[in-house]
Amino acid sequence: MANIERFGSIFLLFLTIILSINSISCEKSLLTNQAALFVFGDSVFDVGNNNYINTFRAAQANVWPYGQTTFKFPTGRNSDGRLIPDFIAEYAWLPLIPPYLQPGNSISHFTYGVNFASAGAGALVETYKPQNVIPLGSQLNNFKNVEKMFKEKLGEAETKRIISRAVYLIQIGPNDYFYPFSVNISYFQSNSKDRFVDYVIGNTTTVIEEIYKSGGRKFGIMNMGRLDCVPGMLTLDPTKIGSCFEPITELIKLHNVRIPNVLIRDLQRRFPGFKYSLFDSYSAGTEAMENPTKYGFKEVKKACCGSGPFRGSSTCGYRAGTSREFELCENVNDYMFFDGSHTSEKANQQTAELMWDGPSDLVGPFTLKTLFQNL
């Protein structure tokens, strides 16, 4: 009996060792030699983080008809289907990058990358703070939590390899510039636009700097797109219904001048090895709006889903029969915008293709395709 018990103890010890080795091997086998993709931003990039926080209805897209095209159910993406990071991941031979807050995530998922973006988020903490979104600084903290997890599970050397080879995709600012108008339409009559833009650029620069200090070297950055001309903006000025909202236009132009001349120049000067791909979202959006048929669109002012003039009101997904009932177009592929603020999957794919390997007048000095290669 003693020999049997002794044999049983030895067997259990042996089995424990085998399972531990197998667990480690499995964990290592799930590592990828491909560069990971880490995503920061707002609703343009949020693939579902806001599903898991208590925020306001307009910052969540977890109801039908969101997701109707590709996923056939709402995933939390503010579109009828995939977003720009989904396509970038596909082009980089990566799986869909999961939202950070998604339950069930593990180290094996995160080695391919993580999406930290949150709809409604801004570079400034004050932007939609009462609505409990995840601002850019908090997204950075979540990235540092993932870095810590890597170090605990994979070790310092493997963590350094993943972080140094990864591409960091960042899109932030639209909510910062729109939020003051939602609180007080005359906000900038008594506040400096230049100083406000400097705060947004400064906070964005700080986050990139912190990622660099963690070992990140390759960054994909979008300038500010045509936020002023989305369907939801076309009725803000009652004297110019159907026109782009000019107070936002001025902020966008100030922002876009500062991206290369302040943010990029500062980072290049201070940080050796900093590499970037800057995408001119403003010019690309303007081109599509002015030449819609060239890009396969029949409608670039009116949204597919929503209500009111240009379907610009944020009612997409509200229940029928309520005071917030919405309209839905028949063919979303005809539309540049899916709802009053967000582009359709078709438009997202076109943008992603330009960011991935577009012409030098829209993306440079590197394309995202080049950044994903071993620079």
TrEMBL record:
Q: Which UniProt keywords apply?
A: Signal
Q: Entry's Pfam families?
A: Lipase_GDSL
**May I ask which residue range the UniProt record assigns to the signal sequence?**
1-26
Q: Which domain of life is it from?
A: Eukaryota
Q: Which InterPro entries is this protein grouped with?
A: GDSL, GLIP1-5/GLL25, SGNH_plant_lipase-like
The question of whether Lipid metabolism is a record keyword is answered with no
* Any one GO molecular function term: lipase activity
Instruction: Please tell me whether the keyword Signal is annotated for this protein.
Output: yes
UniProt name for this protein: GDSL lipase/esterase
